[in-house]
Amino acid sequence: MDELQTILTSYRNKKQKDATTIEEQHLEKATSSDIPDVFFDHILVKYKLTRVDIIVLMYLYRQVWCKPNLHRRYGLTPVLSYKVMTENFEVSVEEIHGSVHRLESYGFIEIIRSGQYFVRRFFIEALDKKFGQTYDDF
What we know:
Elements: H1 2-10, H2 14-26, H3 37-46, H4 51-66, E1 76-78, H5 82-89, H6 93-106, E2 109-113, E3 116-119, H7 125-130
Antiparallel strand pairs: 1-3, 2-3
Helix pairs in contact: 4-6
């Protein structure tokens, strides 16, 4: 009798099986982004970044260096809407603005014009030079 109960508890009817198969088809495969080790070994140690600073920096970094970008050679990316960032990160627009200004004061990014950012490949100018990253004039 115990064997029958274990068989019945492990049994799924056909409708449940089809539903899980459909759910599995909608799952996305995990992706990854390349972040230089200098970020973990130097930047996180030397600079006191907040959680929002790190999120914004990684967002901009991914936009420039990890995703297809027409301006990758120049280290430029447009950010069309802070609203998307605030919804994705669950932070306020004020926190995003404050973080952008802190990151700019550290030299990690530069605001070219409203909504367009220059993001360094190795985060600071000295490390860009050390690793041979140059940018054309923009």
